[in-house]
Amino acid sequence: MTSAQSTDHLLPTPPHDPFFRAVTAPAFTHELLAGLAAGRYAAVRVPGFLPRERCEEVLAALKEREFDSYGTNRIHPPVMRFGVGVSDHMADGGVADGYWKALEGHREAWQGLGLSFDPFRTCREGIAADWPPGVAVGRRGGREMGEGVAREPNQGFQVHFDDALREYADDLLDTPLIGQFAFNLYLSVPPSGGETVLWRHRWQPEDEAYRLPNASYGYDEAVVRGAESIELTPEVGEGLLIDPRFFHAVRPSRGDRRIALGFAVGVSASGRLLTWA
Length: 277
Ligand SMILES: O=C(O)CCC(=O)C(=O)O
Ligand SMILES: [Fe+2]
Description:
This protein is of the alpha+beta class.
């Protein structure tokens, strides 16, 4: 036996934070949402959150349509999407007028799919089914924000975090938020790759040294070096809520499209959940 083999079992196990974990459950319960907001969990997964027939209906309709690409300077490698997200319409720390105009086209495009149900409403209401303060689409200046987008990051998402408090100069929504989640519902997943990775690292000022060039949303992966991580392989129909202030990434897909419905979820001071995209 070589000395390497004989001492393998003596290698120190890296320390683990018991609160940095993904829980899998049959539904998004009050305890799980409160725990995610409080920092007791990093992610909550609900397999079969949207029944398979419903996933297939939305996927079949989306597959007939052309997806657009996100602004390719900021989002590189390109991510395809169907629908409008506010991140493409940020201007001077606020939201450009073009967002509201683009949302009109977005609503027409989603209505044009002719679905038998509203997938964003179904997801939103499913998340809040055991959350008495309820859920609504967030508003800005009295106007309703976008409900969600279908995103296709076949070449992955760079390491990044999402935090509306840091991304916008003032409150993004009319109601200030005391917590934030990111929601994804997977409609199509590749046979390999496409994992969502979360790191136990939140943004700190020194991290700006790792920001990728050209006003990218992403950071060099060295920014999370040494941090504990969780890798999640999405399943069709799964609903996932994460704490998006942890740095996260999506790995490139191989073999099939990776398409997810997504929106941001804020927790308002009254406890009401407010979504936007
Ligand atoms: O597609 C995913 O699994 C995560 C995408 C992401 O970055 C987010 O939802 O904030
Ligand atoms: Fe993200």
